[in-house]
């Protein structure tokens, strides 16, 4: 997405309204899936926002793969599981991992032969790199202490063994000079990329849900204590205490918990008899059933469903991303090449039947392309005590 579409990184959300849906026949109750498109939109404004950035791939010449004998073909979901297990077991011996979707292979960055042997024994491909996870984490801490200005974001790219730092069009003058200075001090542990857009949140996504003067999107239907709830973005939950499934309609839910900044998730309790299937709207007359929550992995092919732009796909480009919004810093996000636009916030990021993330913010649009950040679903479920139906 070209963030110029969203305006300056100024704390303004662009919300879009839609024409009320046709009434369902009396014998059917309305459903809230995880995406539905409005017929017509009217721009609305509300305070608070989150942003996005676009990142391009970098070439890292010092990394090389260890022999790939014994490498096993894996699904993205399996690769994520193995990558987490290896990271926990190897500790400082690994510097991240990514999924090679074309080859169906998990590639794990390592710094010593012992770690490489462990990686190969797990059926993954070991790749020797220059910098350890500790060295890259040290670079991130330096950025947090010396360069955390609104309009910036960063995450570790395991494919380049660098911390990729992004600055949007609002970072100028002394702030840009300071950012350039800090990145230069980090040497080739970090690389700075500029985006012509601005980082901001995207109020909307999934099935359209209407709050007090705002429209967001339903992410995933969940349960807590045997009762029905749904997840959406925290900057949406902060904007409204109550929600409806149509503009000006009867209340369908109330915000029970909302966290933003820091993280970006909200838990909303259903307060009316609305069906709540565990499914995502694909905008082609069909749905994608959701059966589990999963952690994303770099290189994984994913899809996003939103009420403004329908379904779009892309790849996971980074994990544990930090985004410095005007409202504050959000950590632990999934960075992707998926586009999104205002009205897509809170919507579903998924891979087949796996719930991965909730749309937070980004830059660009779905005409020219963009980058979008997502709140991981497993972390939101753990924090709220909810589970998928």
Description:
This protein is an alpha+beta fold and about 400 residues long. It has 3 domains: about 75-130, no CATH class; about 135-195, GMP Synthetase, Chain A, domain 3 (2-Layer Sandwich); about 200-389, Thrombin, subunit H (Beta Barrel), CATH 2.40.10.10. The chain is about 15% helix and about 35% strand. It has helices at about 75-90, 115-120, 135-145, 175-185, 235, 375-385; strands at about 10-15, 45, 65, 95-100, 105-110, 125-130, 150-155, 160-165, 190-195, 200, 210, 215, 220-225, 225-230, 240-245, 255-260, 265-270, 280, 285-290, 290-295, 300-305, 310-325, 330-335, 350, 355-365, 370-375. The strands form 6 sheets. The protein has a 6-stranded antiparallel beta barrel with strand order 21-22-23-26-25-24. Strands 13-14-17-16-15 form a 5-stranded antiparallel beta sheet. Residues about 1-30 and about 35-70 have low confidence and may be disordered.
Features:
389 residues; alpha+beta; GMP Synthetase, Chain A, domain 3; Thrombin, subunit H; 6 helices; globular; Streptogrisin_prodomain; Pept_S1_alpha_lytic; serine-type endopeptidase activity
* Amino- and carboxy-terminal Cα gap: 33 Å
Q: Spatial order of the strands in the main sheet?
A: 21-22-23-26-25-24
Q: In DSSP terms, counting alpha (H) and pi (I) runs of 4 or more, how many helices?
A: 6
Overall mean pLDDT: 82
The radius of gyration is 21 Å
* CATH fold category name of the largest domain: Thrombin, subunit H
Please give the domain count. 3
Poorly predicted tracts of residues: 1-31, 35-68
Total number of beta strands: 26
| Shape call | globular
Helix amount, in percent? 10-25%
- CATH top level assignment of the largest domain: Mainly Beta
Q: Looking at this structure, what is the CATH superfamily of the largest domain?
A: Trypsin-like serine proteases
Profile the largest sheet.
Answer: 6 strands, antiparallel, barrel
Indicate the CATH architecture of the largest domain.
Answer: Beta Barrel
Structural class: alpha+beta
How much β-strand is present in the residues? 35-45%
Family: Belongs to the peptidase S1 family.
GO molecular function: serine-type endopeptidase activity
Keywords: Disulfide bond, Hydrolase, Protease, Serine protease, Signal, Zymogen
InterPro entries: Pept_S1_alpha_lytic, Pept_S1A_streptogrisin, Peptidase_S1_PA, Peptidase_S1_PA_chymotrypsin, Streptogrisin_prodomain, Trypsin_dom
């Amino acid at each position: 997405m070209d963030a110029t579409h969203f305006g300056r990184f100024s704390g303004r959300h662009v919300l879009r309204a839609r024409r009320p849906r046709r009434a369902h026949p009396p014998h059917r109750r309305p459903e809230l899936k995880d995406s539905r498109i409005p017929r017509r939109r009217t721009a609305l404004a509300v305070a608070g926002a989150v942003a996005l950035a676009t990142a391009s791939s970098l070439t890292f010449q010092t990394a090389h793969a260890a022999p790939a004998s014994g490498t096993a073909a894996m699904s993205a979901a399996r690769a994520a599981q193995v990558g987490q297990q290896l990271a926990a077991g190897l500790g400082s011996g690994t510097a991240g991992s990514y999924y090679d979707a074309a080859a169906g292979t998990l590639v794990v960055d390592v710094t010593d032969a012992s770690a490489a042997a462990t990686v190969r024994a797990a059926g993954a491909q070991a790749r020797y790199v220059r910098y350890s996870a500790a060295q890259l984490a040290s670079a991130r801490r330096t950025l947090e202490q010396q360069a955390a200005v609104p309009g910036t974001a960063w995450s570790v790219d395991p494919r380049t063994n660098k911390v990729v730092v992004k600055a949007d069009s609002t970072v100028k003058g002394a702030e840009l000079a300071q950012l350039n200075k800090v990145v230069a001090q980090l040497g080739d542990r970090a690389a700075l990329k500029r985006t012509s857009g601005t980082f901001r949140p995207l109020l909307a996504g999934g099935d359209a849900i209407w709050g007090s003067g705002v429209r967001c999107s339903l992410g995933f239907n969940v349960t807590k204590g045997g009762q029905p709830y749904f997840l959406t973005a925290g900057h949406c939950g902060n904007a409204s205490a109550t929600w409806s499934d149509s503009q000006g309609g009867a209340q369908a839910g109330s915000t029970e918990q909302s966290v933003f900044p820091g993280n970006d998730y909200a838990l909303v309790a259903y307060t009316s008899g609305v069906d709540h299937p565990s499914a995502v709207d694909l905008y082609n007359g069909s749905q994608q059933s959701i059966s589990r929550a999963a952690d994303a992995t770099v290189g994984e092919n994913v899809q996003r469903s939103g009420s403004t732009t329908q379904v779009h796909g892309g790849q996971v480009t980074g994990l544990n991303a930090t985004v410095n919004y005007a409202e504050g810093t959000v950590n632990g996000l999934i960075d992707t090449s998926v586009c999104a636009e205002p009205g897509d916030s809170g919507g579903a990021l998924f891979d087949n039947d796996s719930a991965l993330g909730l749309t937070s913010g980004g830059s660009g649009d779905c005409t020219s392309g963009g980058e979008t950040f997502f709140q991981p679903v497993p972390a939101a479920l753990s924090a709220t005590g909810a589970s998928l139906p």
